[in-house]
Task: inverse folding
């Protein structure tokens, strides 16, 4: 029996899909080479924005016709949307046979022996101990170090669907990272909704980084996501002193206005955030800083929004993931007064994107003439004589090379830049 798994949303879902693949493989399932030969289609879904959910519902609706040719075919919905919508996904006409929450993947093989069903728990402490993910990528790996979130940002559905924060056993993380290096996955990213609050016995996140930095078989260590309220001096110190920890941090600002940050329950001010940026740049001069920003949060005035644009100009992010506010059922912000009209959210989003594009191009252009180290991840999509990969500071780079360079570090010179790619020699 063959399965086909489609993944939506963040890297946490990519990592969870690797766990699911591993569970199905151990239960005797085989991966299908395409959706056409699948006996089971799984959608690992995201609930962060309404658009992400609508996309998956559209995909399921497009694929359910396959059951006419293959009545044995089953469709399963996993992940955050499964957790949020639950039984509603099993209503007649949806085409869905199984719904499995984010902490019930071990139950999946038994559930598949039934005709239809649901597995869900809203108070789980699951960390999938001892389970080896089936890494799909040949060169880079994601290793989950925390699951869930305790922060309850008022716009975010994650704490409701992924439960309370818990950390993975240090020894399991160490084994996973060593295994990645041994298998040739030399660029490892530690994952969590807020990695900075990792805690296992005496191990906090800076200590975890220092220990993993000793793993000889990997070249690079990264982490996402950092909550500004938990970014300590100790962590900045560890980042600066660990040679494998790359010069990049993803530090979501969300808004440049203190009243909006308060309404978002972010627990820091713009001034706190600017101080962190100053400390990071003092300790790691070439650090690249990326962020997440939301346009049109309820109550955000035109001048509040202008402050976000000003923060972007002041901080000069290397890249920013810009979103318009998306109202989510079950979040505190859903009931907030003064919702910003949709057209206004879109107009503000466009201003953010345009500004960031200019900044990114300028930042990338400052790299021209510099020598950079690229970890080669794949052949370039545009040319057989070029390969692509990432610099230590998380910029995509294209350079001369061939298939044999994949998985190796190359030192090269930047000769050109676009607002997204460094073109190297
Ligand atoms: S830190 Fe805030 S935005 Fe991030 S997952 Fe937790 S609640 Fe959501």
Result:
């Amino acid at each position: 029996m063959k399965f086909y798994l489609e993944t939506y949303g963040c890297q946490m879902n990519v990592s969870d899909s690797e766990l699911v693949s591993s569970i199905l493989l151990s239960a005797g399932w085989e991966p299908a080479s395409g959706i056409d030969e699948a006996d089971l289609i799984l959608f690992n879904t995201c609930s962060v924005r309404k658009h992400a959910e609508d996309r998956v519902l559209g995909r399921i609706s497009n694929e359910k016709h396959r059951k006419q040719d293959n009545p044995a075919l089953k469709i399963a919905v996993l992940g955050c949307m499964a957790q949020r919508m639950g039984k509603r996904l099993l209503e007649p006409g949806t085409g869905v046979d199984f719904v499995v929450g984010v902490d019930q993947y071990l139950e999946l093989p038994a559930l598949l022996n039934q005709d239809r069903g649901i597995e869900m728990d809203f108070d789980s402490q699951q960390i999938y101990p001892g389970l080896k993910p089936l890494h799909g990528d040949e060169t880079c790996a994601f290793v989950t170090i925390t699951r869930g979130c305790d922060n309850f940002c008022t716009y975010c559905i994650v704490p409701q669907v992924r439960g309370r924060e818990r950390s993975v056993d240090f020894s399991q993380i160490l084994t996973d990272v060593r295994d990645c290096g041994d298998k040739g996955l030399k660029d490892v990213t530690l994952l969590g909704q807020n990695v900075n609050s990792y805690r296992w016995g005496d191990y906090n996140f800076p200590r975890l980084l220092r220990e993993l930095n000793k793993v000889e078989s990997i070249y690079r260590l990264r982490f996402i996501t950092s909550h500004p309220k938990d970014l300590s001096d100790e962590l900045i110190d560890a980042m600066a002193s660990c040679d494998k920890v790359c010069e990049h941090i993803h530090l979501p600002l969300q808004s440049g206005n203190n009243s909006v940050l308060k309404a978002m329950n972010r627990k820091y001010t713009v001034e706190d955030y600017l101080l962190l940026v100053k400390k990071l740049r003092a300790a790691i001069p070439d650090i690249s800083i990326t962020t997440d920003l939301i346009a049109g949060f309820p109550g955000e005035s035109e001048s509040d929004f202008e402050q976000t644009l000003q923060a972007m100009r002041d901080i000069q992010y290397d890249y920013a993931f810009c979103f318009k506010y998306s109202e989510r059922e079950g979040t505190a912000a859903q009931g907030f007064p003064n919702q910003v009209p949709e057209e206004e959210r879109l107009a503000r989003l466009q201003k953010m994107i345009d500004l960031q594009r200019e900044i990114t191009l300028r930042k990338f252009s400052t790299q021209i003439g510099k020598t950079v180290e690229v970890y080669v991840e794949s052949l370039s999509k545009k040319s057989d004589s070029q390969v692509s990969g990432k610099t230590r500071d998380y910029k995509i780079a294209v350079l001369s090379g061939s298939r044999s360079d994949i998985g190796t570090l190359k030192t090269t010179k930047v000769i050109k830049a676009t607002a997204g790619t460094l073109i190297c020699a």
